[in-house]
Amino acid sequence: MAAPSEARERRPFGRRLLTDPARLFQHNAWDNVEWSEEQEASARSKVQENSSQLLPQDKQEEYEVNAKKYWDDFYKIHENGFFKDRHWLFTEFPELAPNRSSSQNGDSGSGFSNTEESNNEGLGSCENGHCSLETRTGSQLNLIKSPPRGHTEELAAQNDSELSQNGGDYPGLAASYRILEVGCGAGNTVFPILQTNNDPGLFVYCCDFSTTAVHLVQNNAEYDASRCFAFVHDLCNDQSPFPMPEESLDIVILIFVLSAILPEKMQCIVTRLSRLLKPGGMILLRDYGRYDLAQLRFKKGQCLSDNFYVRGDGTRVYFFTQDELDHLFTTAGLEKIQNLVDRRLQVNRGKQMTMYRVWIQCKYCKPTTLQP
Ligand SMILES: C[S@@+](CC[C@H](N)C(=O)[O-])C[C@H]1O[C@@H](n2cnc3c(N)ncnc32)[C@H](O)[C@@H]1O
C-alpha cells in the first residue's frame, strides 16, 4: 500500500500526451514525456562532457563572493522583463490562494498545457544561459518605471537588524495567513498572489539578496505595504534574522531559487526556513531538474561542481534530482506531500525545433505533532 504522503501525491501537470510521433509539431508542448534509454544516456554523456573540466578554485570563490552583484547586474539589465508571469501558479500551488475558484484568472484547471497552447514562445527564449522558466502570456503585472522610493534603502538596512526585534511587533503581525517568497526577483509570483488571493487576512513577505530586484518589487504599482513587505535578505547569511518570528508562516515559496545557491549551503537554508513555518505549514518549490535542456546546453569550462554551473553573466544554477530535494527537506524535519518531476517537450512549430525541459515540484509540510 502507498505511504500516506505518497497517496496524497497527484499528477497535476498537463495531460496532452504525445502518443503519435507524427503529431509532434501539432502543439507547442507535450506533457509527461517519457525519456528513452538512449536519450537518458545521451544527456548523461553531455553532462559528463560539460563537467569534465571544473573552474579553478579562485574563480569559484569569486562567483560566490560576488553572487549578489551578478544578480543585481542581471536585474539592472532585464528589470522585470525576463521571468514571465505564471498562470500555472494556482493550479500547481492552490495553497497560495486557498479560497480561489478554479475558474478565476482564466485558468481551465488542466495544468500547464492550455496556457502554453495560447502562445508560441516556447523556444528561442534562452539567453546567456538563462532559459525562460515558462512561456509568456498576457501580462498580469502592472509595472511602473518610477525612481526607487525614498524609504527603500532604509528598509533594506533596517530589516536585518531591527524589525524582527521590534518589541514583538512585526509587519504582518495581524494577518491570519502569511506567505513568504524567498528569492522573489522582480515579483512575478508575489503580484499574482496579491491579485488572486483576496483573503483579508493575507500578508505576503518577499525577499531577495538583490537590492535591485527588491526595488523593482517595491516600485511596482501593485505594491501595497498594507498587504506586503519586501525586504533585502541574503539566504546564505545565517546570522541575518528574518522580520517575522519562528512558526509564524503558513507557506514558504522557493521558485527557481535554491538552484542559485552553492550546494553546500542549501541544507542550512532549508532548515532555517522550515523553522519559520507554523506546524502544518508548507514549503513549496519548483526548480530545475537533472538533465534539463539548460544543463545540457552548458559548455565545457562553465561547471563549478557536480551539476552546478555558472552562466555567462556570472549567475549560477544547480540541477536537482528528486532524491536530493527529498533529502534536504526531510533532514529539515519536513514531511513529503509531493515530489514530482515534470518532463515536458516544448516545440517551436515555426522553427521545427524541440526542447526537453525537466522541472521538479515539491511540497513539504511541517508536522503538526512531534515525531517519536
Ligand atoms: C532564477 S531567479 C528566480 C527569481 C524568482 N523566484 C522568479 O521565479 O522569478 C533566482 C533568484 O534568487 C535570488 N538569490 C540568489 N541567491 C540568493 C541568496 N543567497 N539570497 C537571496 N536571494 C538569492 C536571485 O537574486 C534571483 O532573484
Task: Give the topology, please.
Layout: H1 4-7, E1 29-30, H2 37-50, H3 57-65, H4 67-78, H5 89-92, H6 112-117, E2 126-127, E3 130-131, H7 152-161, E4 177-182, H8 190-196, E5 202-208, H9 211-218, E6 228-232, E7 249-255, H10 263-276, E8 277-288, H11 293-296, E9 303-305, E10 308-310, E11 316-318, H12 322-331, E12 335-348, E13 353-365
Parallel strand pairs: 4-5, 4-7, 5-6, 7-8
Antiparallel strand pairs: 1-12, 2-3, 8-13, 9-10, 10-11, 12-13
The structure holds S-adenosylmethionine (SAM).
- How much is the radius of gyration in Å? 20 Å
Poorly predicted runs of 5 or more residues: 1-10, 105-124, 134-161
Classify the beta-strand content into a percent band: 15-25%
- Secondary-structure element string: HEHHHHHEEHEHEHEEHEHEEEHEE
Q: How would you sum up this structure, described in words?
A:
There is one protein chain. With 372 residues, the protein is an alpha/beta fold. It has one domain: Rossmann fold. It is 27% helix and 21% strand. An 8-stranded mixed sheet has the order 1-12-13-8-7-4-5-6. Strands 9-10-11 form a 3-stranded antiparallel sheet, with no helix packed on it. A two-stranded antiparallel sheet has the order 2-3. It is globular and about 60 Å long. The relative contact order is 0.17. The N terminus is likely disordered. It binds S-adenosylmethionine. The site of S-adenosylmethionine has 19 residues, from helix 4. InterPro entries: Methyltransf_12, METTL2/6/8-like, SAM-dependent_MTases_sf. This is tRNA N(3)-cytidine methyltransferase. One of its GO terms (biological process) is methylation.
